[in-house]
């Protein structure tokens, strides 16, 4: 096997990494803050993908001259739509299940079925796909024999920008300070004056918005169907558990490790073998480090 | 200013706070004295909103707070320094203090805080969880102060803290009250500390207020007897 194949395989692992990272960041932040395991997170991703599809249709019909840059509008709309949907969902549904983890699991699973059915009746059971702008098709060939698809390079760049924004919001903004305080001690955060209800709603909305961006990214790699979210939800959970919920860096490294091993094992065996191997590895790791790979250390308060 | 009327608090079936009434006037400092397990923490958590009340009222300057979440009570002018400090272990000292500024969000710690607690200024970037007990206590007070409260509520601030720091804490609380006009409601088992800080003393016994004394009352030392097991 040549070095060129290794590089191209590693590169295609990176595109899986971007989707897993965007999905897992939202899951991890929401789980860390409110203890909610959102089984419908994959369907939020699918929502982002369908919104991207709708925006592409709209541009195709009404603004064909702008087809080259529709993807930027689409990403923004996917984020905005899932953000708003997440906000409303938290206020009208999720918040009634706080402190009831099993009920939350069931309720969000039910919600995921409802959403899948909704997509099926609205968009049909078939796959829909979006056109790729011409400047995103083709590949960059840094040396002869190594071809790096441009759309994947775009996705990686986009994910890095989004990841940086999440980092800045969590660690440099007032909202982030509130999220980190409530994650560490909810009753005490309320007792220092933090409006925990508002933090919950906003954070759930941001987590949903990240899933929406993941959906938009997904449309550049494959076609969307009502079950698209299901493809990624389990892997995203594994990423969160493996990385440890309270560490952004952990989530990123874990997404990277899992995406790359998935792609590598798939190359030699099948996708199923890859999934099973990774799951076994994660289970063994959790036996030794139940808090995940990266857990913050302090003396304690 | 702060009025608590006929408060009752339960843990499930167990009736832990029984018809407690108390007031804290403007610029006043009141101490609730009681042995372990008499209900000081339960009372204070109910006042700040960390525990629900079964019946009774909590009113601050005419605003009823007993049905409000904690953060509304802080917005109304209460601030809480809990037993065990409960600083945010993974936030830096500076971030811990800034969490208290929700009433008027700040990006920098107000200068007067580091005048009262110079040691916090030196440790701005350290994680709250890596401070000593005494330093965490100062941090918890600073975090409460930046909310600019009318009434500062402190639950056993001397617990587990060495004597020299206890003296410093007493001086700081007296100065805060004098300079910033803050009222204080504090719970204690140590009478000497309470005598330095408060002017009025309520004795709590099995969830009831059973006695009240002023600092210059003849029987003030009787409280000491009460605090012995
Ligand atoms: N979460 C709880 N559930 C049930 N009972 C509780 C709970 N917390 C405290 N209690 C009981 O309520 C009573 C009052 O406890 P509280 O913590 O208010 O006392 P305290 O005066 O603060 O004691 P200390 O000086 O030890 O802090 C005690 O008998 C205690 O066992
Ligand atoms: Mg107590």
Ligands in the model, by name, code or SMILES, are: adenosine-5'-triphosphate, magnesium ion
Low-confidence stretches of chain B: none
Into which percentage range does the β-strand content of chain A fall? under 5%
Instruction: Give the CATH topology of chain B.
Output: Rossmann fold
**Cα separation of the termini of chain B:** 34 Å
Would you tell me the structural class of the helices and strands of chain B? alpha/beta
Structural class label of chain A? mainly alpha
Q: What's the number of helices of chain B?
A: 9
Strand content of chain B: 25-35%
Count all strands of chain B and give the number: 10
| Residues in helices of chain A, as a percent range | over 70%
Query: CATH class of chain B, anyone?
Result: Alpha Beta
Structural topology:
The complex is a heterodimer of chains A (301) and B (229).
Chain A: H1 3-34, H2 41-62, H3 70-92, H4 101-123, E1 139-140, E2 148-149, H5 150-172, H6 174-184, H7 186-191, H8 196-219, H9 228-243, H10 248-268, H11 271-288
Antiparallel strand pairs in A: 1-2
Chain B: E1 2-11, E2 14-24, E3 29-33, H1 40-48, E4 55-60, E5 63-64, H2 70-76, E6 78-81, H3 93-99, H4 111-116, H5 118-122, H6 133-145, E7 151-155, H7 163-180, E8 183-188, H8 191-197, E9 200-205, E10 208-214, H9 222-227
Helix pairs in contact in B: 3-6, 7-8
The structure holds adenosine-5'-triphosphate (ATP) and magnesium ion.
Gist of the model:
Chain A is mainly α and 301 residues long.
Q: Could you explain how this protein is built, in words?
A:
The complex is a heterodimer of chains A (301) and B (229). Chain A is an all-alpha fold and 301 residues long. Chain A has a domain at 17-226. Chain A contains 11 helices and 2 strands. In chain A, strands 1-2 form a two-stranded antiparallel ribbon. In chain A, a hairpin with a 7-residue loop joins strand 1 (139-140) and strand 2. In chain A, helix 1 packs across helix 9 (228-243) and helix 2 (41-62) crosses helix 8. Chain B has 229 residues and is an alpha/beta fold. Chain B has a single domain (2-228), classed as P-loop containing nucleotide triphosphate hydrolases (Rossmann fold, 3-Layer(aba) Sandwich). Helix content of chain B is 34%, strand content 27%. Chain B is built from 9 helices and 10 strands. Chain B has a 6-stranded mixed β-sheet with strand order 6-7-8-3-9-10, with helices on both faces. In chain B, helix 7 links the parallel strand 7 and strand 8 (183-188). Chain B starts with a strand and ends with a helix. The relative contact order of chain B is 0.19. Classes of the chains: A mainly alpha (301), B alpha/beta (229). The A-B interface holds A 174, 177-178, 180-181, 184-185, 187-197, 246, 296, 298-301 and B 48-50, 69-71, 74-75, 79-80, 82, 84-91, 95, 98-100, 102-103, 105, 127-130, 136, 143-144, 147. Magnesium ion is lined by residues 40-41, 83, 155-156 of chain B. Adenosine-5'-triphosphate binds next to strand 2 and helix 1 of chain B.
């Amino acid at each position: 096997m040549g070095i060129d194949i290794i590089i191209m395989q590693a590169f295609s692992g990176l595109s899986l990494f971007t989707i897993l990272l965007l999905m897992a960041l939202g899951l991890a932040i929401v789980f860390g803050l409110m203890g909610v395991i959102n089984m419908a997170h994959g369907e939020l991703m699918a929502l982002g993908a369908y919104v991207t599809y709708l925006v592409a249709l709209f541009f195709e019909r009404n603004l064909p001259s702008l087809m080259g840059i529709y993807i930027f509008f689409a990403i923004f709309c996917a984020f905005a739509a899932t953000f708003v949907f997440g906000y409303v969902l938290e206020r009208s549904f999720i918040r009634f299940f706080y402190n009831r983890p099993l009920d939350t699991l069931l309720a969000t699973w039910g919600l995921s079925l409802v959403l899948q059915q909704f997509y099926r009746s609205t968009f049909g059971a078939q796959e829909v796909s979006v056109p790729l702008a011409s400047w995103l098709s083709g590949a960059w060939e840094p040396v002869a024999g190594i071809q790096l698809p441009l759309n994947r390079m775009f996705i990686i760049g986009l994910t890095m920008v989004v990841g940086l924004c999440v980092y800045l919001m969590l660690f440099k903004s007032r909202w982030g300070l509130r999220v980190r305080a409530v994650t560490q001690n909810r009753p005490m955060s309320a007792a220092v004056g933090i409006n925990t209800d508002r933090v919950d709603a906003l954070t759930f909305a941001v987590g949903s918005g990240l899933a929406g961006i993941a959906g938009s990214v997904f449309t550049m790699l494959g076609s969307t169907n009502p079950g698209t979210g299901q493809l990624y939800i389990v892997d995203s959970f594994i990423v969160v558990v493996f990385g440890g919920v309270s560490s952004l860096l952990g989530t990123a490294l874990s997404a990277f490790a899992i995406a790359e091993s998935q792609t590598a094992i798939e190359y030699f065996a099948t996708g199923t073998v890859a999934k099973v191997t990774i799951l076994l590895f994660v289970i063994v790791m959790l036996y030794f480090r139940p808090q995940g790979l990266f857990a913050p250390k302090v003396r304690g308060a | 200013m702060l009025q608590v009327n006929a408060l009752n608090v339960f843990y499930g079936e167990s009736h832990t706070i029984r018809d407690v009434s108390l007031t804290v006037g403007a610029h006043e400092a009141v101490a609730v004295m009681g042995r372990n397990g008499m209900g000081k923490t339960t009372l204070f958590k109910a006042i700040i909103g960390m525990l629900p009340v079964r019946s009774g009222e909590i009113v601050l300057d005419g605003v009823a707070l007993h049905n409000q979440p904690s953060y509304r009570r802080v917005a109304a002018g209460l601030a809480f320094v809990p037993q065990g400090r409960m600083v945010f272990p993974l936030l830096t000292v500076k971030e811990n203090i800034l969490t208290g500024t929700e009433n008027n969000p700040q990006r920098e710690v107000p200068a007067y805080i580091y005048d009262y607690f110079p040691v916090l200024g030196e440790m701005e970037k350290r994680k709250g969880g890596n401070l000593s007990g005494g330093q965490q206590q100062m941090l918890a007070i600073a975090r409460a102060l930046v909310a600019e409260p009318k009434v500062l509520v402190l639950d056993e601030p001397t617990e587990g803290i060495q004597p020299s720091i206890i003296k410093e804490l007493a001086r700081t609380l007296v100065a805060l009250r004098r300079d910033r006009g803050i009222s204080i409601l504090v719970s204690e088992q140590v009478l000497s500390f309470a005598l330095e800080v408060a002017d009025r003393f309520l004795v709590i016994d099995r969830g009831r207020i059973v006695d009240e004394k002023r600092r210059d009352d003849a029987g003030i030392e009787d409280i000491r007897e009460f605090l012995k097991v």
